[in-house]
Amino acid sequence: MSFPPIRPELAGIEPYGAPQLTKDAAPVQLNVNENPYGPSEACLDDIAASVREAARTLNRYPDREFTALREGLAAYLNTDGGQGLTRDEIWAANGSNEVMLQLLQAFGGPGRTALSFAPTYSMYPEYARDTHTTWVAGRRETDFSLDLDAAVALIREVRPNVVLLPSPNNPTGTALPPEAIGVLCEELGESALLVVDEAYGEFRREGVPSALELLPRYRNLVVSRTMSKAFAGAGLRLGYLAADKAILDAIRVVRLPYHLSAVSQATALAALRHADELLGKVDELRKERDETVGWLRDRGFEVADSDANFVLFGLFEDRHAVWQGLLDRGVLIRETGPDGWLRVSIGTPDEMTAFKTALTDVVKELR
Ligand code: PMP
């Protein structure tokens, strides 16, 4: 037996993660769907002052129920599709990855099944593996949309306990059609949960509704969000969800006590006070995204429609060569998604110009 005595199914598995390069190695970083705009001085001052206050109490455990933060998150969600949500329907953890892991700890497990539709977010099968939940992935259409009839048929066959559906989807950028959530919630009934992962929800195009609007109608619906993307808070590690109170009570059974530090709570609350500023770049990023989609299409690339802050494009015979060529020119994007495709996150106008210049150059060189 080799050392360490790890669970056999984990032996030899590489930890999940995109290549992390320094700014020197890759000055233009467009690989993990971050918001390129940092906080203003005013916001920094507020965060620093709030953390300083929180630090006075660091000898004590933090508020285990992060009550003020749940209240702030509920108020924010009510400005973006939430219908009278209260803190009793809000939960948070260290990134929406942790929120969804907790969901599978409580609602998945041995003998239970989680379902999604590929290509999709590559952490979902990891949450399933780590909670001993059976993982099943159906397929998306060639344009990465979800065929609702096929999805319903697969649900009838598999009888999942949890369905994880990002809207917009990562890495394709595809939003769910508005009718999908109702149809799937009805199909699942109260013996299973539909988790709509709206990590990129704020970037959706005009007219695309948020699943938050449907929470009053479906008790088995969970909507997950994060401060990592639109809120420009990837370093904060703060994800959250809105759902029925009974679902929250189930999560409380599996969460570790005091999982959200006093520093995280204070920082997130300060960020919420500056929501207008932090979210202020969303419109610009959406415009830049639409512009990038148009630019790529004009040059003959295939591009998936995107409701997110990234764009999946291709098709390349040797995508690794294109990825490497871009990196050689200082532009780091992500080699992910189906074969032949690459994903670029939307950055500042200067960063997108650097990306376009580098891509034009690489394609010419590889031709
Ligand atoms: N869901 C999706 C679809 C994502 O792409 C990501 C991050 N890449 C997450 C959830 C997790 O984000 P975080 O843990 O930063 O909230």
Key terms:
7-stranded mixed beta sheet; aminotransferase; Histidinol-phosphate aminotransferase; histidine biosynthesis; single chain; alpha/beta; binds 4'-deoxy-4'-aminopyridoxal-5'-phosphate; PyrdxlP-dep_Trfase_major; Aspartate Aminotransferase, domain 1; Aspartate Aminotransferase, domain 2; pyridoxal phosphate; 14% strand; 367 residues
Task: Briefly summarize what is shown.
The protein has 367 residues and is of the alpha/beta class.
Provide a descriptive summary of the structure in words:
By secondary structure, this protein is an alpha/beta fold. It folds into two domains: 18-33 and 280-366, Aspartate Aminotransferase, domain 1 (Alpha-Beta Complex); 41-273, 3-Layer(aba) Sandwich (Aspartate Aminotransferase, domain 2). It has helices spanning 41-55, 67-77, 96-107, 124-130, 148-158, 178-188, 245-254, 262-273, 275-278, 282-298, 319-328, 349-366; strands spanning 28-29, 90-93, 113-118, 134-139, 162-166, 193-197, 221-226, 239-242, 302-303, 310-314, 331-332, 342-345. The strands form three sheets. A seven-stranded mixed sheet has the order 2-8-7-6-5-3-4, with helices on both faces. α1 (41-55) packs antiparallel against α8 and α3 (96-107) crosses α7. It is globular and about 55 Å long. 4'-deoxy-4'-aminopyridoxal-5'-phosphate (PMP) binds at residues 33, 95-97, 121, 166, 170, 197, 199, 226, 228, 234, 239.
